[in-house]
Design a protein that fits this description.
This protein has helices spanning 86-92, 96-106, 120-130, 151-165, 172-185, and strands at 36-44, 49-57, 63-67, 110-114, 137-141. The protein is α/β, with parallel strands linked by helices. The protein has a five-stranded mixed β-sheet. The termini are far apart.
């Protein structure tokens, strides 16, 4: 196996697993399920579009994140992947079948919220069609969960949270973390 699926890259704002974020609040354990969030890093060139990393939150607020081993059919014939390191993806990436299994275990019959900026549905379809399975969850933009702000205001606040926390917006675990912080600010997670 090239890589492990479980990785506590960043704590959820529920107080679990402080790894990268210094100022995570201490919040008591929940007995109810929290909203689930997902973010996907991807490669996009003139000839290719495919996922390179994915992060998602769990019912208890913890996160999983993985690098994705690409399918050969996803790669352009000319080999031009921009600044994506194919060797890294091949060596460190999780096989799609293993990723699909984890997503089936962690997100069955869930609505999973995304920032709504990326081609998340297309990328999820690529993952699951490569292993001839249906995605076990529905994707919805964060604006369907947090209805008190319009999409532009939500994105501005998400970017501000990333900046305030000193997080790189390209990392999917940071994208999930910022969505969890947004949900907490809007009262979907207890302080």
């Amino acid at each position: 196996m090239a890589a492990t699926v479980w990785h506590e890259a960043a704590p959820a704002p529920t107080g679990y697993a402080a790894h990268r974020h210094k100022h995570s609040p201490k919040i008591p354990e929940f007995t109810v399920s929290l909203p689930r969030f997902l973010d996907i890093e991807y490669c996009q060139t003139d000839d290719a579009l495919f996922p390179t990393a994915i992060a998602w939150s769990l019912a208890d607020g913890q996160m999983k994140t993985v690098v994705i081993a690409p399918e050969d059919v996803w790669l352009p014939e000319d080999g031009d992947l921009g600044d994506v390191d194919l060797l890294y993806l091949e060596e460190q990436g999780v096989p799609l079948l293993e990723l699909a299994r984890e997503l089936h275990e962690d997100l069955p019959d869930q609505t999973v919220y995304v920032d709504g900026l990326d081609p998340d549905e297309i990328l999820i379809d690529l993952i699951f069609s490569a292993v001839r399975q249906e995605a076990p969850f529905e994707i919805a933009p964060i604006s369907e969960l947090i209805t008190g702000l319009n999409s532009e205001a939500l994105e501005d606040r998400r970017r501000q949270l990333l900046f305030d926390e000193g997080l790189e917006p390209q990392l999917p675990e940071n994208g999930v973390y910022s969505l969890l912080l947004l949900a907490r600010e809007e009262g979907y997670l207890e302080d």
